[in-house]
Amino acid sequence: MKTEVLTQEADKRTMTINMGPQHPSTHGVLRLEVTVDGEVVKKAKPDIGYLHRCFEKYAESLGDYAKVVPYTDRIDYVSAINQEMGYVIAVEKLLELEIPERVEYMRVILAELQRIASHLLGIGTFGLDLGAFTPFLYCFIEREKILRILEKASGARLLYNYICIGGLMRDIPDDFKTETREFISSFRPKIDELNELLTTNSIFIDRTANIGVLPEEVALNYGASGPMLRGSGVSWDIRKNDTYSIYDRFEFDIPVGSGEVGTTGDCWDRYIVRVREMIESLKIIEQALDQMPDEGDVQEAVPRRVRPKEGEVYVRTETPRGELGYYIVSDNSSGPYRVKARTPSFVNLSILPAISKGALVSDLVAIVGSIDIVLGGVDR
Amino acid sequence: MLNTLENIIPSPVIALLIFVALPLVLVSIYALFAIWMERKVAAHIQDRLGPMRVGGWHGWAQTIADMLKLLQKEDIIPTNASRFLFKLAPFLLFAASYAAFSVIPFSSAYIGSSVDIGVFYLLAITSLLTLSVLMGAWASNNKWSLLGGMRTAAQMVSYEVPTIMSVLSVLVVAGSLNLMTVTEMQTGNTTLGFLPDWLIFQNPFLLIAFVIFFISIVAESHRVPFDLPESESELVAGFQTEYSGMRWGIFMLAEYADMLLLSLLGSVLFFGGWNSPFGEFMAGPIWGFFWFILKGMVLVFVMMWMRWTLPRYRVDQLMQICWGFLIPISFVNFVLIALWEMIF
Fold first, then answer.
1. For the whole prediction, is pTM greater than 0.90?
2. Which stretches are transmembrane (chain B) (predicted)?
3. How many domains does chain A have?
4. Could you tell me the pLDDT band of residue B233, with boundaries at 50, 70 and 90?
5. How far from B329 is each of A212, B165, B206, B208, B213, CA to CA, in Å?
């Protein structure tokens, strides 16, 4: 009897509030139903779903493998190339196609450039969530340079539709290599600048260390991937562990969080993994630029007619946000019979209720920012 | 100053009105300038241009255009808000800021009221700021606003303690609560032969007092890294979420007025107020006004610089800094200053 009265009183102390949209990528599409006791979060429930891309249904009803590619762009619109690449590799595996060397190298360069651009956006907006406005703009200045390189190659700024089944839509421009090299040399000092503003800033460390700790076990149980998983100390990168394309030809490390300033798996760890991954991506791009053959037709292997044999395929690739899987079933027609995309943002967001318990409202902002979701990938 | 005005202008009432309106004009012009300056500082730090179009040279008329825009906006009062208090809050806030200017000695010839309890009055009247913020937050009938208001109240009440302790340490050295007297005793050029005779150079503990004072005034005028009342990523706009148009504009105006007020207080207490840094060179009432505003603006600039560099603290960390570090240090520092004064 007495406990009942107490719980009733405890209920009176809590308050349910709607939080968000707060992170730039959650505008209009993610709302958090937060139960708070004062400023302490008792329960946080993400309410997703106002985007309704219907990607899977649309892909199945289009009836053409090639026409699906622009739709994959829209799953994760800040790392479109990586989404295209995953889908195209899956279809090529169904078709058992051989891809020219030059195309493989170019895909890797484009995908790694896109990874840097995506991480820059993630880091910048994470800082913005914590009240640091200037790093956000610094990141965007750098991101703009990458977008310009990609725009010159593909003709689009955000949704490229550049990688096609068997090759690329068109050859890269002549000055692509020099421009990319210029970007790499100008970008390295900018990372130091960013570290000065955020990584080693004591206020930033206070706000992110020991916040939203995701233990290794929980991360594995939920199926987290990408920087979210690596931040918790698990060295798991599909580029290395289940290699695809030509990633086995490059030397690079997998940065993992080790709790340098707090507990392993906190927001700072997830942040630093992204920063270090950008440096690794630069290494990959440099190696790829050196090894890439200068001559070759990028449309050489593009099939006239895409009609794979009956069968199914599951291909997973590493996008900036984690493991992106495409499961495609073919019934020997010109379009896929079934497409299922396993997007990292959805899985990573599902961990939010588990790691936000007991945090403060301001920590919740940091946690959502550190997950780095894109809502296109959450509500396909 | 009042006597001079009375001599020029026939009616003593008009003379008095002009005398009273001077700080108001100053604060308004300053706010226009400071908002523009904030944008330009931000633009330079962030590698961009900032306002460039409105008014020609570097967009100098941008704030005026903003003001006109705000004046035209619809004045929305939430249905379930407490109408009277909701309307009253911004005006009370601004009135408190403005009233505090009356004891600030702008130059050797101009002070609103040279009262003997100047500092005491200033600290008392600025506590109205807390009241009006809480009033506005509560009256808007919005959970987020109330959260923001409570945060603001907690923050401002807490940081008042280290502010007052560091002000007290200055007053122990100065021996007067009258800000004019405090400024006058900093005239001259004696410390170490070349440094001006400002209080900050007079003993090492006053330097510590100034650091504490500066951190506390950043928090008092809620600027980054202590801008929790506004914190746009967590509370959207904190206590002022429900305010629109010019009512919101007055909140902004008061924030900038508050920044200036506290910076000017800092310049009186530590940097010799209207005294010239070069002794007798460039001294006098008009130059005094110039030096005084310049010193205040330098502190304002440092606050802006910090705003565009640092992230924001969390509310419990903010309290930890205040109660865990600033208050104990300021108390110890106060005792040390008192001892120094006894010995030397």
1. no
2. 12-36, 91-111, 117-138, 159-180, 200-219, 256-274, 286-306, 318-340
3. 1
4. low
5. 32, 10, 12, 9, 11
